[in-house]
Amino acid sequence: MSFSVRDIWFKGYRSLRSIHFEVGDLTVFVGANGAGKTNLYRGLQLIQAAAQGSFAHELAREGGLAAALWAGMRPKNEPARIHLDVGLINESMRYRYRIEAGLVQQAGGTILGTGFLGEPQVKVETLKFSHRGRERTVLERKGPGVTILGLDGKRRSFGVPLLASETALAILHDADRLADIAAVRRTLLEWRFYHGLRTDRDSPMRQPCHAVTTPTLASDGHDLAAVFATLVHIRADAAALQECIDEAFPGARLVVPMPDRMASFGMVFPDNPKRVYEANELSDGTLRYLALAGALLSARLPPFIALNEPEASLHPDLLAPLAGMIARASQRAQIWLVTHSKALADAIEALSGVPPHRVIKRDGETWLDGLRLGGDFADEDD
User: Fold this and answer.
1) Is the pLDDT of residue 258 over 90?
2) Cα 300–Cα 348–Cα 352 angle in degrees, nearest 5
3) Within a 10 A sphere around the Cβ of 204, how many other Cβ atoms?
4) pLDDT tens string 61-106
5) Pairing assessment for the beta strands 16-22 and 4-13 based on DSSP bridges
6) Angle 73-78-84 from CA coordinates, rounded to 5°
7) Boundaries of each ATPase AAA-type core domain copy (predicted)?
8) pLDDT at 382 over 80
9) Nearest one of 309, 350, 308 to 327, comparing CA atoms
10) Whole-structure pTM over 0.85, yes or no?
């Protein structure tokens, strides 16, 4: 069972002083450089990292917690923390996962606890479940201590204190005893973030990959050839894929040989119909478009797909076909799109009826135009 994202609340992370809003089946963010669009995207990645057990490592790669904290003013007695909170829903079942990270506690120049100076420390972690108006806390972590709600309805200590760099969501995933935690963690791990689809000459997408049935594209696209082979030879359902290729490159077709040990693909173009251009010969824009097609038209879409500036290196003529793929995919999965391109956002709106959110800077903080403090938008009353 997978869950959709219902709403997010990010606080104290980079340019996100405090922002809360509901999320639909298709959510598009458009704005200028420096407005903070990527911070919204990155906040969701950090939530997934908590499920993977790499939360502290991801923040460390950003330069440590001090570099990732909101740099503006905050209330005098409020601790310096990053607060990431996501609501998940499936019919009448709702979960809310929250994680807070702060700095290592010190007293008189001495480090207190089990972390290094400058290391991100998980301070608070909770998972709450609500159904038919009743809410219960199934996981609660404060510092190293964790309590969980058992199947008998009784709360008990996990027993083993966690390190400040560990996340309870990653450590506690015994599906037999902790089905709620396992369900949420599984959903978060299924999310896909597509921003690192490299098209340089050493890109893994330009190389054959192992011929293994692959229903969903990996975040780095290394298994793109296997995704295409699965659609063409296992599912025999590549009509939508070929249609999107023809819209982008009229008269061209995708060639996917029946794989043996390795899977590969190429393209045939109308100006040279007897020549197959292998993946390592394709232009950056062509390869990127094919990778996005693999992400959005694969045999099994993940429950949540996040795209960060998918229009990069694409010719303007490819934006309309890309918008069509995104609108079509939003009928099978929840889509979160961050883009610089107003043309792409407008094309998606024309196809889906979903207007984009304009990301702005307001007194140094990232905000969404029209967003009210309650988490809804001013035009929703119209």
Assistant:
1) yes
2) 75
3) 16
4) 999 888 999 988 888 888 889 999 999 998 878 999 999 999 876 5
5) antiparallel
6) 90
7) 26-345
8) no
9) 350
10) yes
Kindly state the tokens that stand for 282: 């394709």
Task: Tokens 């993977």: give the residue.
Answer: 52
Whether residue 176 contacts residue 271, with contact meaning beta carbons closer than 8 Å, is answered with no
Both tokens of residue 173?
A: 């995933």
Token pair 């040279």 is at which residue? Answer: 272
* Amino acid sitting at position 143: G
Reading the block at residue 206, the tokens are 């330009």
